[in-house]
Amino acid sequence: MGKRAVAVESRQHQKYERLIAATENLPALVTAVAHPCDEPSLRGACEAADAGMIVPILVGPKDRIRSLARQLSMDLRDMELVDAPHSEAASEKAVELVRAGRAELLMKGSLHSDELLSAVTKRDTGLRTGRRISHVFVIDVPTHAHTLFITDAAVNISPDLQAKRDIVQNAIDLYAGLGLGTPKVAILSAVETVTPSIPSTIDAAALCKMADRGQITGGELDGPLAFDNALSPEAARIKGIRSPVAGQAQILVVPDLEAGNMLAKNLTFLSNADAAGIVLGARVPVILTSRADNVRTRMASCAVAMLLAHSRRAREPIRA
């Protein structure tokens, strides 16, 4: 590997390394891992445990999990295994462990996201709150100076204005919960002017006004902004956009799931980015990784969830 390749590799992972390092002095959190029945999900849970980030409860078919561990020469040590015959049952049992107070985090294993989220969002037995559930990609782009937060690219397909309000607030709360301060939030569209024929520009303008009126708090919003002038100060200057957000955005709010998914995967496969994933708006953070994620990305997702959960702990009122 040449010097340039080494430099790029070093830059690529340093943001995630800082996230993981920030968890070093925090106690590990009990985490219900739903259906960890392939190598990336089982290894990711075990390595996060080795790093002192989580205490996994492995929920799924016990014999299959033990057999996989033997094949991979992995020692499950004293990890608790909770038997569940298939992925749907594993999702429901993992959610039940959280509801019972036995786990503070929920982690997706080798199952489809819809299966886990279906259990999370059930009205009577799930983990719903008054907030709309949404997903945030925490993306480490090697060529960009800062970590980017992209939302929502995995849960809400075509969110209306009220759903977008929750999506924005969830992302702001995550950013603040990680100790990063007040985020600059760009509401993305294809253009940077309010254009009635492009509905996402109308939503962007409404979201900014909602922030002005205190319906969204904790962040600086601007929109509509196109992707170039959200991230490039030069593009914003050329377009004549004067804004504390334009050219400096840290949270990118996409118009819909398709746009967000394509943007995140574009950065992953063409810019060598890593994309950690977390679901917000439930009672606890949900570590929602892709089945294609590497172990490093899974650990970064654990770090994000762990830091957020500890931040929430610190804000909880002391009960007499």
What report would you give on this structure?
- 43% of the residues lie in helices and 17% in strands.
- It folds into two domains: 11-128, 3-Layer(aba) Sandwich (Rossmann fold), CATH 3.40.50; 129-281, Isopropylmalate Dehydrogenase (3-Layer(aba) Sandwich), CATH 3.40.718.
- Strand 10 and strand 11 (286-287) form a beta hairpin.
- It is globular.
- It has eleven helices and eleven strands.
- The chain has an eleven-stranded mixed sheet, sandwiched between helices.
- The chain has 320 residues and is α/β, with parallel strands linked by helices.
Short description:
By secondary structure, the chain is of the alpha/beta class. Helix content is 43%, strand content 17%.
Highlighted features:
320 residues, Rossmann fold, Isopropylmalate Dehydrogenase
Spell out the CATH superfamily of the largest domain: Isopropylmalate Dehydrogenase
- Return the domain count: 2
What is the subunit organization of this protein? single chain
- Outline the low-pLDDT stretches: 1-11
- Proportion of helical residues: 40-55%
Mean pLDDT: 90
CATH architecture of the largest domain: 3-Layer(aba) Sandwich
Number of helical segments? 11
Give the class-level CATH name of the largest domain.
Alpha Beta
Q: What is the overall silhouette?
A: globular
Write down the secondary-structure element order: HEHEHEHEHEEHEHEHHEHEEH
Query: How much strand content do the residues show?
Result: 15-25%
Structural class: alpha/beta
CATH topology of the largest domain: Isopropylmalate Dehydrogenase
Query: How can the largest sheet be summarized?
Result: 11 strands, mixed
Separation of the first and last Cα atoms = 59 Å
Q: What's the arrangement of strands in the largest beta sheet?
A: 3-2-1-4-11-10-5-6-9-7-8
Q: Write down the Rg.
A: 20 Å
Number of beta strands: 11
